[in-house]
Structures are given as structure tokens and as C-alpha cells.
């Protein structure tokens, strides 16, 4: 092709692309404008050029710079108490979404209609997970994989993991003990290392000793999540991001696939390899793959080797578990410590429960738990503290795709068409909806122990940190066991006190000249959300700000 023709072809292609973009943008905004005129609830400040993107900016500016975007959504929700849902036109950066905090509508979305997940729920975590996984699958593909992976996460299988989790938490305790009286630590970092160790064992049966040292897999994983954001364009548009994430993704894939081949070999030749009983997620999924001719094997024959598409998808699933099992649980552990540090009466009652269930000898609890994991079920107040922490600091949102012919009933009776929109359930707002929750912003574990009829009794369907329905979080039993074990083995030994004031002073001293000038001209920024310095910040999921700097002290005999 002559150079002139080539340039002309490029110009035509570019002009067609621009025309298509302008036309679809016009069509999109025209539809929103029409809905706006019809009274579809949405922020009043909307424009043909920017949709509602400037509104988000206005709200995020009222929060600390690293506050999670869900906190801005929660603030916005206060303007929509009549409908308990509203539309945000975020095109072209993100599909326009109906933000929902009405518990009754949530039951329709996840339970009654079980709406599909939108493509964005997979795309948003693709750099972390690598490709198709449970989170992005829908229909029969999701069903097949979910039933293959369910056994590994069943409540009964989780009991098999209790002794190992206890061992990991004991290392966590040793580290806290070494830190006591020794300066500020990042509790989020300690908890992240613990939960990574646990999830590696639960999914791959691998001992990585990450709390004490380095390991190639969590290091690669940590690099990927540090280069990840669900919304921050400073990270998302960094040209180096895909290179760093692909390189580290390949490191993880190679590791997971080696483990997969090893388990497959052990399973095919149990006598030769002296294989132990299978408890890990990967072993149980392989067992179903080898044994279950109906779904994964060919013609009912036991497969002799793993096929490529199975290997690739199972690798993505494992990467998903490593991410979800680590990020959400570690932040919840840090927030649970935070809540107990602020509510001494709850901490006292928690300790009392542990005295009753495990006896006065604090050092004996680990052994008792390993011998009899069902003791966990007797710790009802401990569970109540975990539930209340998850109510106030839920780490995950729920996203679904609207469908033709499906309309959401708003609180005021309006019917809102969902076709073409994503639906985002912001758990923070559902969990603190003052219409249905009594004293919504207070940490009150006792609400989980009172009976129906009591004013604190939790309203139906308004508590959904793991969401409800067939797509409920697969990791719920693991999470609850793990955090309960952490509290049982730490609460009577350590006092954890937030050290934000000291931390902020240290950061102030480290400021360079330009930073000081900038602060002198525009003033100190906001660093709390509703008075909470440990607000949910942006680090892949919703972690406590600045990694929860704190000091650890040993509990004295008088306490
Ligand atoms: C505090 C801890 C956790 C919270 C609050 C949480 C929350 C959630 C939520 C809200 C969903 C969406 C459900 C829906 O769309 O209906 C979900 C799904 C999921 N979670 Fe979790 N999660 C946690 C821990 C874990 C752990 C430990 C794992 C795995 C090791 C895990 C794996 C998953 C998976 C695979 C899904 C997708 C399930 C499906 O679509 O079938 N999560 N989680």
C-alpha cells in the first residue's frame, strides 16, 4: 500500500472511531437526560459533558485523599433517603450504575432474580486474577465451577483446617509479643501476612512461612495489588502497570500450575506418592475433576492428564481465592482490633467468654482448639464482635447487571428500569441505613445476641457483608473461623492501641520543603471520616488507613 493510502486508511479508521464514540456518548447521555426529566433519582448536578463524574469528585474532595470511593457513595446516599437508590452516570470511565441501599431491593437483586454479574466485575480484577473466575462467570459455567469448588470451602472441611490456622495465629501472637513495647507496628501488614499464610495452605496445601520471611508468591501478589486500583486513574493509567502486573502474574501462574500438577500426580497414584487425605481446595476440586466424569471428565473416563483450559481456569480461581481470602479477611482483623480498642466493655466481655470456654489458663487455649475445633461454635460473643465489625466495615461491594424488563422498586414506590445499567449494592450504606437499623453507627455486638422483638434485633436482609443467595461468598466459613481464632488467641494476652497521633507527627516531620509549602498554602487536609482516623482507605480492597499504625502491650494481671 502506498504511504498516502496507508495514512488515509488510518485517518478514516480514526475518524470512524471518534464518530462512533461521539454517537454512543450522545445516545447514552440522551437516555440519561430523558430519565432525568422523568424523575429517575440521581444527583441534580448532571451535565452532557461530564455526566455525574464531577459529583463524585466533589464528594471525594470532602474526604481524605486516600479514602475509599465507597465512602463517597455512602455520603451521597444521604440525599436519597426517599428512594434508597439513585443513578450515577459515570460514562465513559465506568458504566452508569444504580447505587442501591434499600434492603428489600437487595433481596430481589441477589436472591429472587439473582441478576448476573456484569463484565466489569471480572475486568476490574483481571490483573489480579488473570482471567475468567467465579466472580466473572455466569449461568451454567458458574454453576459447574461453583459446585467443583464448594467442597473445599464447606463448613465441615473448614474444621479440618482449624489446627493449622491455630499454628499460624500462634506465629502472629509471637510477632505481637516481640513487638510489645517496641514502637509502632502496622497491624494491617501483620494481618495480611497471617491471612496469606492461611489461604495458601487452605487452597494449595502450601506452607509459605510468610509471617517470618519472604516467599516468591506473596511478593508477586503484593506487587500486583500495589499496582492495582478499582478507580484511581493515577494508578490505572500508569503505562508500566500492565508490564509489572503481567510479569508477576506469570510468576504466580507457574507456581500454582506446579502445585496443581503435583496434586494431580498424587491423586492419580496415591500409593506411590503416600498422599495424605485431601483437604485443600485444589485437591478437592481435582478429586471432583478426576472422579466426576459427568462434568469435567470426557465420556465418563478418568482423565489421564489435565487439559489446558481446566489448568488455566483453575489457576485463575486459585488466584481469586488468594486475593479474596487475603485482602478482605486481613482488613477485617485490623478493624476488629480497632473496634475492641475503642470499646473496652466489649473487650472485657470477650475476654470473659474466652475464660468460660477455654478456662483461665490463657496458654492452653491453642491446644484445646486444636484438639476440639468445635469449641469455636461456643464463642457466640466473639462471633457477634466479628459480625458487628463486618457491619461497620464491610470490605466488599456487590455488583450485578440490570436486565431488560427488570425494574427496581424504590422506597417511594417509583419503578426504576435497570436495562443497560450496572447495579451496585454499597454494603456500608445498607448496613447503616437508619430507617431499619437502631443506633446504626454504634458498635453493639449484643445486637447479634438478642431475640426477635428486641429493639436491637437485626432487620431482615439488611446485613449482607457476604451477600445472600446462591452467589453468597464461598469463603464465609473460612473467614469467620479465622477471625474468631485470632480473637480467641490474642484478646486475653494483648492490648492493641491505635497510634495515629504519633504516626501523623512522624509523617509531619518527614515532610519535604515543597510539601510544607503546599500545606502552608492550602492548609492541612482532612484525615478522618466521621471522626474515624482508621477510615476505609484504598488498597485493592478497603483497608484501614495507613495500615493501622498501633502499639501493642501485654495485658497485665490486674486487667
Ligand atoms: C471478610 C471476608 C469476606 C467478605 C466480607 C466477602 C464478601 C464477599 C461478597 C460481598 C461477595 C459477593 C457476593 C455476591 O455477588 O452475591 C463475595 C463473593 C466471593 N467471595 Fe468473598 N468475602 C470475604 C472473604 C472471602 C474469602 C476468604 C474467600 C476465598 C478464599 C472469598 C471468595 C469469594 C468468591 C470466590 C466469591 C464469588 C462467589 C461466586 O460468585 O460464586 N471471599 N465475597
From TrEMBL:
The chain crosses the membrane at residues 6-26. Its cofactor is heme. The keyword Ubl conjugation does not apply. Heme binds at residue 473. Pathway: Secondary metabolite biosynthesis. Keywords: Heme, Iron, Membrane, Metal-binding, Monooxygenase, Oxidoreductase, Transmembrane, Transmembrane helix. GO terms for molecular function: heme binding; iron ion binding; monooxygenase activity; oxidoreductase activity, acting on paired donors, with incorporation or reduction of molecular oxygen. Pfam families: p450. InterPro entries: Cyt_P450, Cyt_P450_E_grp-I, Cyt_P450_sf, Cytochrome_P450_monoxygenase. This is Putative cytochrome P450. The lineage of its organism: Eukaryota, Fungi, Dikarya, Ascomycota, Pezizomycotina.
